[in-house]
Structure formats: C-alpha cells, structure tokens
Design goal:
This protein is an alpha/beta fold and 397 residues long. Strands 4-5-13-10-11-12 form a six-stranded mixed beta sheet, with helices on both faces. The relative contact order is 0.14. It binds pyridoxal-5'-phosphate and zinc ion. The site of pyridoxal-5'-phosphate has 18 residues, from α5 and α9. Pyridoxal-5'-phosphate (PLP) binds next to α5 and α9.
Length: 397
C-alpha cells in the first residue's frame, strides 16, 4: 500500500512544508510533523485489510512516510509482546496491569521503530551522512539501520552513557564521539558539526520522521487491544517522542474511522534527578525549564530540556493525564521486583513506569478495574554498568 504522506506541518505555527525534500525545523524553531491524506489512507487502511498484512511495522504503510517499498530498511521489526503481570496485579490491587516489552525489538529498544522509519526516509531523500546526539539507545539503533542503508552515522553521546550502546555504535561502524556532559551538550557538538559538514541533522524532533516510526507503537497497541485502548498508558519520558507518537497514532486512527473518541490517560514518568516535565505539569505550565546538572541511572530519560516538551504537556492536559518523578533507588527496586515476580528484565526507565503505576494506584488515581499499560522501552541487558549487588565469591584452594 502507498504512503498517503501529503506534507509537513509546523507543530506550533501551522506553517506547511514540502515533504519530499530534506526538512528540519520550522522557521519559527518548532518541530515539523508529517501529515497525510487521511481520506486516501482510509480507503485502504481498514481492519480487514490490516488483518491480512505481515506482523511488522511496515503494515501501516499508508500512515508512514516512506513512499518506495524498496527503500524500507528493516531488521524485521515484529510486534513487541504485551505481557500481563499476573503476580503484580494480585499484589498491588490491579486487574489489568500489563507491560509492552519493547526490549524485544532489534537493537533491544523501542528506538528501532524511529530508526527503521527515520533511516528509510532519509535514504529515500538522498541522505548520505547524518549526525545525532544520543543517550545511547537511539544512537545504537540509528547506527545499525544506517549500516544497512549504507549511510554514514556520526554519533555524539555523553561519556557516562551505557558502555554497551557505545559498543553497539562501534560495531555498526558509526563514528562515535564522547562528550563530558549531558545530552544537550552532545546536541551542541552536533549543531556545530552539522553546520560545518552539512550532515543531515537527525536529533530528536529535528527531522520529522523518527516520530512516525515511534507512532507504530500506538498502532500496535490498538490492534493488540482488539481495536480498543487501555485506560492508562505509563511512559518513561525523556524527549517524549514515544508519547507524542502514540497520541498522534491514536488521533490518525480516529480520523480514518478505526478508533472511537475515548483516549487513554497518559502518564509521563521522569526521574527525581531529571524532572523538567513533571515540574512544568505540576505548575500547569505549557513548557518546561532547562534542568541543569540532571542525573539518573535511567539514562534514556536524562533529558534536561526537550524540544517537544510543549507537545508532551499538551497531551497530558488533553487526556487528563499526570506526570510523576521516581527516584533511582525505587527504579532499581522495581526492576528487581518485576524481574523476580514476572521474569521480565526491564530497563530502569521501564521499571520507573511500574513504580509510577503502583504510586498512582495507591493514591486512587488509578482504580482497580482499569487497564494500565506500562511501556518498557528497552531491555535491562544494556545497563551492565549499574553497580548491582554482587553474589558472594566462594574461595577455593
Ligand atoms: C530506554 C529509553 N527509555 C525512554 C527513552 C525516552 O524516550 P523519548 O524520547 O520518547 O521520551 C529513551 C531515550 O533515549 C530510552 O533510551
Ligand atoms: Zn512554525
């Protein structure tokens, strides 16, 4: 099926841009969002047609930006499972608590969705080299997909980013640079490099297509919930792209008549050590403030100021959602809890969503009958640098 991509639209001022040339931010500085001819998409993107398509993210081709099927760069992004958490349901007074485990995707995180679509579209638009700042997982995913596409990847990450994602970039043949600082410092290096070398800027929300890949997380949830939606979606929020993407997916499906009016309430989970969106939400603000010196073991959500913060906040307000901050200790405790009770090895970011859900259940914000979906954005296997307790060593002569 053909992509129904029609144009790009500024998320702030509404200005319209040609989607078939390389584009980055609007002249007003805000991210551009892909828009589709939804009437054309509705003609072929039907429940019965979808039921016959392969179980991978390319099944939503009408609502994805890649025009030429031959340009799809894929490592086989099959559906990620939704795993009911039976023991935790019982222990914490839920009936419908489940986790969508994105750790099963290629490169071990949900970043594969954004990279598959972002790299495919970049390749279609003639990109030969790109640069991006990353906290690790996005760099690992983009480097892998770039390797398949024959595109040169220039990745800049903080020195403290998980070692394994640095190795993933190296193995994928990317040019990796380390910065003594946070992701916004890495972003400054990328800005300069992009200006100097003319590379494609693939920073979060500075190109319009990563979010289109993340959107497939939302499409999948709808299908896995049999064309319905959970009551609450709990998402570990750094740049917020996954959250913005899911919401965009639900709105598009609603527009083409495949979903009703009801939306889930979104919960954005951040770390105590990096909580700009939580603070902005608490104060009823429409944008967040840069948080200097932020720090957390959940590296993926260590984003001191997100370009799309206003979009995340809009979604929280529009869906009657919430924003919750979780301490590192609680995250690691929850990581062990879900591992030991349910056998799922989630990343600290994913563990933070469990802590948030339990907190909101205790407060009564979540009721027992509600269907609550945690998004585990990556596998816990990547975080080998965390100083977990070590077993005792048996001395032998
Ligand atoms: C494991 C993990 N979770 C969550 C995030 C945050 O993603 P988003 O930009 O969609 O908020 C990241 C981003 O690096 C990540 O690596
Ligand atoms: Zn604009």
């Amino acid at each position: 099926m053909r992509s129904a991509l029609s144009h790009l639209e500024c998320s702030k001022c509404g200005a319209s841009y040609d989607a078939d040339v390389q584009q980055h931010l609007c002249v007003c500085g805000a991210p551009l969002l892909a828009r589709y001819d939804l009437k054309a998409a509705a003609a072929t993107c039907t429940r019965s047609s979808l039921a016959q398509r392969e179980e991978n993210l390319w099944r939503y081709s009408e609502l994805l930006p890649v025009r030429e099927p031959a340009k799809r760069v894929t490592l086989h992004e099959s559906f990620s499972p939704i795993i009911p958490l039976q023991t935790l349901n019982r222990d914490f007074g839920f009936k419908g608590l489940a986790v969508k485990d994105e750790g099963t995707l290629p490169t071990g995180s949900f970043k594969a969705r954004g990279a598959a679509v972002g790299i495919s579209r970049a390749s279609e638009l003639g990109v030969e080299a790109f640069a991006m700042p990353t906290n690790g997982n996005a760099g690992a995913a983009w480097a892998a997909y770039a390797a398949r596409a024959g595109i040169r990847a220039h990745i800049v990450m903080p020195t403290d980013a998980p070692l394994i994602s640095r190795l993933e970039c190296f193995i994928a043949g990317a040019d990796v640079q380390l910065v003594n600082g946070l992701i916004n410092d890495a972003a400054s290096v990328v800005n300069e490099a992009v200006a100097h070398h003319g590379w494609y800027d693939a920073s979060t929300l500075k190109e319009p297509y990563r979010i289109e890949g993340k959107k497939t997380l939302g499409f999948e949830i709808v299908e896995q919930f049999a064309w319905d939606l959970p009551d609450v979606i709990v998402y570990p929020t750094g740049g917020g792209v996954g959250l913005i993407g899911m919401y965009k997916a639900f709105l598009e499906l609603r527009e083409i008549g495949l979903l009703g009016e009801r939306m889930p309430r979104f919960v954005a989970v951040q770390a105590q050590g990096c909580r700009p969106i939580v603070d902005a939400w608490r104060d009823g603000k429409r944008e967040s403030m840069l948080q200097r010196g932020s720090n957390t073991v959940a590296f993926g959500i260590n984003v001191p100021k997100a370009l799309g913060d206003f979009l995340v906040l809009d979604i929280l307000y529009a869906t009657g959602g919430a924003a919750v901050a979780i301490g590192d200790e609680a995250m690691l405790e929850m990581q062990q809890l879900i591992g030991s009770r349910e056998g799922v090895f989630v990343c600290p970011e994913g563990a933070a969503t469990l802590a948030a859900a339990i907190m909101l259940r205790r407060d009564g914000w979540i009721t027992d009958a509600q269907r609550v979906l945690l998004i585990n954005t990556g596998t816990g296997l990547k975080y080998a640098d965390i100083p977990y307790p070590q077993p005792a060593i048996i001395e032998r002569k």
